[in-house]
Amino acid sequence: MANRPGRTYDLILAGFCALLLIANIAATKLIAIGGTWTPGGVHILPLVFDGGAVTFPLIYILGDCLAEVYGFGPARRAIIMGFVVSVTATAVFLLVDLAPPDPAWGNQEAWHSVLGLVPRIVLGSLIGYLIGQLLNAKVLVKLRDRARPGSLWFRLIGSSVVGQAADTILFCTIAYAFIVDWGTLGNYIAVGYLYKVGLEVLLLPITIRAIAWLKKREAPR
Asked: Is the pTM of this model over 0.70?
């Protein structure tokens, strides 16, 4: 573990916050792939997820890198910075949404239908993200302190299983409860959780190499 964050930490922090903002906006769209559609509009067993799923697993991978390389303190600092940035973005979107539009513009309903939902999306994201990321970092560091050589893969997967469970359940419930039906919500939670953990497992070789590179780069000279 590096004694103190080096210059690479700032780059990871910037990417961490940027991906979080992108995920919060992309999450305003629900995507359904497959399934059977009835004339009444009821769908049976599609894969339901939100647009934030494109980038959100990468946030956890960066969080794993931060916790494993720098420790819980610097990882917590990055998590809190992401929280502050997201709150700021939400406040700006809310103020712009409430501001009276120019009649010639004509896109207020479109703006509100997408970004007007962002405050609720971000509320769910912030609560899920904060608890999930802190659990992810804490579990990873605890496992690291008791680790045996060659157990990095177990630490990364174990921390993600715990963190992503809390994150996904909290976010999906807060963001979309009473907006979609309960069957869709359950589908959304299950698919989102399995997708995020599955993608992290798939990208595990890259994460392990990235952590090894960071440890070497940030090692005291």
From this structure: yes
